[in-house]
Design a protein that fits this description.
The protein is mainly beta. The chain folds into two domains: 29-514, YVTN repeat-like/Quinoprotein amine dehydrogenase (Methylamine Dehydrogenase, Chain H, 7 Propeller); 533-650, Immunoglobulin-like (Sandwich), CATH 2.60.40.420. It is 9% helix and 42% strand. The chain has seven helices and 45 strands. Strands 6, 7, 8, 9, 10, 11, 12, 13, 17 and 18 form a ten-stranded mixed sheet that branches. Strands 41-40-43-44-38-45 form a six-stranded mixed sheet, with no helix packed on it. Strands 35, 36, 37, 39 and 42 form a five-stranded mixed sheet that branches. Mean pLDDT is 94; it is low at 1-33. The structure holds (dicuprio-$l^{3}-sulfanyl)-sulfanyl-copper and dinuclear copper ion. Dinuclear copper ion binds at residues 551, 585, 621, 623-625, 629, 632.
Length: 655
């Protein structure tokens, strides 16, 4: 490592420490004039609704939370990669398969980047995708139900961070490995990093009708760390850009060793070209093991399928498919402006931000303006592709989003601020502080062809002194700014669920009309559905007992069961017979080592119960559903193994 860069790097680190330690105390008191005006602009009167749905990732919570903007009101936490006892997600038999992976059932992940599906480059309100980092996966959430509908595992990856950024018509969502890993995964010395490790960039197709995902192909790149991505749009449609760091290819003490080179790369992948190569049979079919899990709204069940191969393209065998764009210095975010012309690489260890021109990039490719070639991938000449530099005076640029008026907004982690600058002239227009140490920011539609603008949400890593203290653990925070004028104005700040790395927002009108109110009982194809109370029953097959139960305000049928023995494996298949909005029923039984069930109207859910001692165990509805909710209860009698209490069930006097 050059002395100069060590110095710069440790300067940045100590600056960060000072900034975090000495942040000025900012309270609503010194927001000064305009603060009451700010309050009125985020105030949604009782009975009124928000203008935008905002989807914030939960980071290490593994979930997505849904907020209304501008109010900042939390409306729902959608369980995605982590089990959620509140909703029975990952505990009931129907959703367990969603969390299956090649490593078995994984009950947690680290979810970073929500990404809305797009049509013609504009968010369309159909689906929300999000990446799982630790066990590389992409999930698809259905925005009619606000539930996780599908999860696909990504093979040959470690730390799926540069994901799931969509292409213009959601042809693909992408996945890039943050941690390069042996390809294929095997037992090799860590020191053989350069020979044995690779970085896979994956392109996952999305079926335009069903949304179903499939790993179409992977592009095998050198073992760098692929950090973030964005797909081209308009003129750059057909390309996806991935940032990389650790082009030094180090495998230890990365904070210093991966910060040596002045420039790392943005990898530009021409996926239309890649498609041609796949069609022409250039892809190698490589053995792999990864899971594809799909939830079906008609059977109300998820199923899991193991996939066994993946198509891999090697750049040295596929010319003109990948280029490296030199970008200073350990870039984090890569963001493409609404026209598709400018590619902003935020070098988190560099003071100025390099903006590349797509037009110049094409010209450099045509003129073969290459600095060198790495593993068959041409490195374009930096000066030939550079559109301009943003000299912001900020430190530690991370992410950029755009408004509809040709402005860009970049977060600076170290100097803890958002800087607004003009696309094309690169001049700085405005800057506002964030409390504290902002990571991502989000403008509704701000990574699309048509930003909806109006608000900017900064998501901050450090909350110290912003809220009443809650012990050592403080929530991360989001801050909402009005960006409709020349100057940004802080309107609101609110704590978040988990650590929101990124968010997306969409006008409510694109989602709200399609929101499902209940599931049709007539169309319920669950294999263990009970469509009417008269059909409720208990069936024994050896030591497996299936309870076909119904729930309706305000009783279960059956609500009394006898003839269950210690050692039985009991499945409660509970169907909620309600056909009305907002009438879920819950189900819980004492001694179950599970969560509750929370069954939507028209849905069937299953709880597994293994009674381990004789007794009479109460069961009840956990969701306040009517004036007689408290009466929605019953009993299950459990007898010693081998006793001869007959199997019986009833509700009311039908015993
Ligand atoms: S990250 S703060 Cu997207 Cu996970 Cu940049
Ligand atoms: Cu059903 Cu409470």
């Amino acid at each position: 490592m050059k002395m100069k860069s060590i110095f710069k790097f440790s300067m940045a680190l100590s600056l960060l420490a000072i900034m975090v330690a000495c942040q000025p105390k900012q309270t609503s008191r010194n927001l000064g004039e305009g603060s009451s005006d700010a309050a009125s602009r985020v105030y949604i009167a009782p009975g009124q609704m928000d203008e935008f749905y905002a989807f914030l990732s939960g980071g290490f919570s593994g979930q997505v939370s849904v907020y209304g903007l501008p109010s900042g009101r939390l409306m729902k936490v959608i369980p995605v990669f982590s089990v959620d006892a509140e909703k029975g997600y990952g505990f009931n038999e129907e959703t367990k398969p969603l969390l299956q992976t090649s490593f078995g059932m994984v009950p947690w992940d680290d979810a970073h980047h929500p990404e809305l599906s797009q049509t013609a480059g504009i968010p369309d309100g159909r689906w929300l995708f999000i990446n799982g980092n630790n066990t590389p996966r992409i999930a698809r959430i259905d925005l009619t139900t606000f539930e996780t509908a599908e999860i696909i595992e990504i093979p040959n990856s470690g730390g799926n961070h540069s994901s799931p950024f969509t292409t213009e018509n959601t042809e693909y969502v992408v996945a890039g490995t943050r941690f390069s890993v042996p390809f294929p995964q095997k037992d090799v010395p860590i020191g053989s990093f350069k020979e044995n490790f690779k970085g896979a960039l994956s392109f996952i197709t999305v079926n335009p009708e069903t949304g179903h995902m499939e790993v179409a192909f992977q592009v095998l790149l050198p073992a760098f760390s692929y950090d973030l991505a964005h797909s081209g749009k308009g003129k750059s449609h057909g390309w996806t850009f991935f940032t990389s760091y650790n082009t030094e290819q180090s495998n230890t003490l990365m904070e210093a060793n991966a910060s040596q080179f002045d420039k790392d790369f943005v990898a530009a992948v021409n996926w239309k070209k890649a498609e041609e190569y796949v069609k022409a049979g250039k892809a190698r079919e490589i053995p792999a093991s990864y899971f594809h899990n799909v939830y079906d709204d008609k059977t109300h069940m998820a199923t899991s399928e193991e996939k066994k191969t993946v198509k891999v393209l090697i750049p040295s065998e596929c010319p003109d498919m990948v280029y490296f764009l030199p970008t200073p210095k350990s870039p984090h975010g890569v963001d493409v402006d609404p026209t598709g012309e400018y590619i902003v690489g935020a070098g988190k260890l560099s003071a100025d931000m390099a903006v590349h021109s797509f037009t110049k990039m094409l010209k450099a490719i045509e003129n073969k303006a290459f600095e060198t070639t790495i593993d068959g991938i041409p490195v374009l000449k930096y000066d030939e592709i550079l559109a301009g530099m943003v000299s912001s005076g900020g430190l530690g640029p991370l992410h950029t989003e755009f408004d509809a008026n040709g402005n860009a907004y970049t977060t600076f982690f170290i100097s803890s601020e958002v800087v607004k600058w003009k696309v094309g002239t690169w001049e700085v227009m405005d800057r506002v502080p964030c409390y504290y140490s902002v990571g991502h920011l989000m403008i509704p539609g701000g990574d699309s062809k048509q930003p909806f603008g109006k608000y900017m949400l900064a998501m901050n890593k450090i909350t110290k002194d912003r809220y009443l203290p809650t012990g050592p653990e403080l929530n991360q925070s989001a801050q909402l700014y009005d960006i409709s004028g020349d100057k940004m104005q802080l309107l609101l700040d609110f704590p978040t669920v988990g650590e929101p790395h990124y968010a997306q927002a969409i006008p409510a009108g694109l989602v709200q009309p399609k929101s499902k109110q209940y599931f049709s009982i007539a169309e319920n194809n669950h294999p263990h559905v009970t469509k009417s109370e008269a059909d409720s029953k208990v069936v024994r097959d050896g030591n497996i007992v299936r309870v076909y139960m119904t729930a309706i305000r305000s009783h279960f049928a059956p609500d009394n069961i006898e003839g269950i023995y210690v050692g039985d494996q009991v499945y409660f298949h509970v169907t909620n017979l309600e056909q009305d909005w907002d009438v879920p029923h819950g189900f819980a039984i004492q001694s179950s080592r599970n969560a509750e069930l929370l069954i939507m109207p028209g849905q069937t859910e299953t709880m597994f119960w293994a009674p381990d001692r004789p007794g009479v165990f109460p069961m009840y509805c956990t969701d306040f559903c009517s004036a007689l909710h408290q009466e929605m209860q019953g009993y299950v009698r459990v007898s010693a193994k081998g006793s001869n209490v007959p199997l019986k069930w009833w509700v009311g006097n039908q015993q």
